[in-house]
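Continuing the series of single-chain predictions for the mutant panel. This is the parent chain; the variants come on the following pages.
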Amino acid sequence: MLHDITPAITERIGVWPGDTPLTREVLCDLERGDNLTLSTLRATVHLGAHADGPNHYAAGAAGIGERDLSYYIGPCQVISAEVERGARVGIERLASPVTRERVLLRTGTFPDPDAFNRDFAGVEVDLVEHLAQQGVRTIGIDTPSVDLIDSKDLPAHHAIHAHDMAILEGIVLTNVPDGDYELIALPLKLMGFDASPVRAALRSL
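Parent structure:
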């Protein structure tokens, strides 16, 4: 079974306050009598389900196009986390022990990608440290960020960077049971960019 964990990318999708929303300019259109349809897209690279490049939060670090693809494909684990809106997920909030090197956290605190709510959950630094000790290489979350909306020092991002881990944000885990899967969430090879949208999917093992 294949689970699509990517939100639909339309002009309604919410983006981080102040970031560039999605717009589409149709240059040619079969419906208008042109010989083909041709579009231009303008948007933040942190759009919907996306992979952060380390240079998003660490000066002099690699862009997303320079990242090893092995972070974004391979065995993973979906784990529910009971957490209040606006709080951070700690170790004690995980519903099951960590057994895979890619972990996707289901918080349920960002239920509608088209209606951006500011009180989504983030990740505790202690949890990042714990996951690193368990050999985790990639952390995913069903919110726009591993840090809270008003965070300026981005402690979770920096802890992840310290352990050379990867970040997936904005994934949709609503209808995916906890358990083990194969993750497929490859970023575009955008050299030097700070993020890339992904078409994220989980395949049952």
